[in-house]
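As a next step, the fold was encoded as tokens, giving this record:
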Amino acid sequence: MAFEGLTEKLSAAFKKLRSKGRLTEADVKSAMREIRLALLEADVSYKVVKDFVAKVSERAVGSNVLEALSPAQMIVKIVNEELTTLMGGENTKLTIASAPPTVVMLVGLQGAGKTTNGAKLAGLMKRQHAKRPLLAACDVYRPAAIQQLEVVGKQLDIPVFQMGQSDPVDIAKAAVAHAKAHGNDMVFLDTAGRLHVDEALMAELCNIKAAVNPTEIILVVDAMIGQDAVNAATAFDQALDITGVMLTKLDGDARGGAALSIRAVTGKPIKFAGIGEKLDQIEVFHPDRMASRILGMGDVLSLIEKAEQSFDAEKAAKLEARLRQNKFTLTDYYDQLTQLKGMGSLADIAGMLPGVNAKDLEGASMDEGMLARTEAIILSMTPAEREDPKLLNSSRKKRIAAGSGTQVVDVNRLLKQFEMMQAMTKQFTGGKLPKNLRRMMGKGGKGMPGLGGLGGRGGFPF
């Protein structure tokens, strides 16, 4: 995951400070030297690192810090605040035009992920903001670019406007006119990229900008290319005056320095981040939450939002009612596993929890094969058997194993796991749930009921 190495090194530096109790200026300078090296190794640009360390040092050597009861915590607080400022301070929302459609022009180098992530962004606006987006295929050069946009558009149930190998400027103008005529309130222009910045590319993009006057010009940047991402961002900003940045492949870069450099170098906010290959794996970029993650302080707000999106509130309410009645069936068990799976890997979830090192749980990611077998076994049972596993004698188990393509031992293992989960619910007597579970499930049953089974090492399929 992005910033993994940076998080480790910063945590080590802060650990040294905490072990000293009272701090001297020399202690602070030593820590700042380690922070400087950690940032440079994370591929943050030298000028940005120099300015950042200078600001932190200036605040950290003040008497109010050195004489504080917990100076190490004060320095962590300062670093957190400065990291947040470095990445933009607050999240910046997508500007919506006063008169629809809102035109979002997606630009960037070839291979950055404009087509897929533009579709992801359109899907996000449709899913969370009830928009009616239109995808426009303005990349007429890259082989299969139009087909790719049509494929992702179909998967997200978003219409795609295309005119084949026509002039991209004409396509952009026609797409906006089509959106007005058909009630689409947002248009996402998927423009062409190049392997490097060149005059022909910039001239075409400038012509499209002049023709449709886009509300937003979002630069799509591959976070894995490090300082080249910053150079590309500078060039596109000078030519087009971009309004924001979307970082892609943030899940695959262990350094992630581009995220810390782009905002400082261009002055333009990072608005969104692509965090995986699936079409729903995009999130609003929150500088304060990202700073907390980098410092190993977790990101509980994002975890709650992710849970609310992944978990079915109606199912959660029904589960709460069933738990109150001491009822927990194999169907409930399966529902919780599949909803938990929808939140991503266990390491990603753990990285959002304060004080938990996601790297420690790298090997504890959910076993997709085990979950598939669990699904096959449960779905091979009759409704009555799911409600009452006591009905499962040896002949029934053989039938279920044959129907699910598994062995009887797999069926027995699942039943044992289920019994463990069922035993946990026995404490819910008197119709009252424990405070911690009520808090986890939230008001009205919302929240993270599935996280109650985060055993990790108890034989569960994660």
